[in-house]
Every structure is written in C-alpha cells, then in structure tokens.
Design goal:
Low-confidence stretches: none
Distance between the termini: 26 Å
Number of helices: 2
Number of strands: 0
Mean pLDDT: 61
Largest sheet: none
Strand content: under 5%
Shape: elongated
Radius of gyration: 13 Å
Order of helices and strands: HH
C-alpha cells in the first residue's frame, strides 16, 4: 500500500481538520486542533 499523502494538494492534517470542523461544526475547532498538534509535536520530539 502506497502512502499517497504527498500527492494530495494540501497536507493530510489540513483535510482532516476541515472534515472534522465541517462534521462537528465546532466554534472552537481551531483551538482543539491547535492543542492536539502541540501535544503530538511535543510527543514526537520526545522520541
């Protein structure tokens, strides 16, 4: 199975965030997304 995320015109996270906000219609969607990204990047750098 190939990783095709590089072939998409926008980063995978951006598309996922767009779908997440569209489906949930969250007012604070960006805040939640931003906190998740900060947490994940912190954990990734710790490895």
């Amino acid at each position: 199975m190939k990783n095709r995320s590089a072939e998409i015109e926008f980063p995978f996270g951006t598309g996922l965030f767009t779908v997440f906000c569209s489906e949930r219609k969250l007012k604070d969607g960006f805040s939640v997304f931003h906190l998740i990204i900060l947490y994940m990047s912190g954990c990734w750098h710790a490895l």
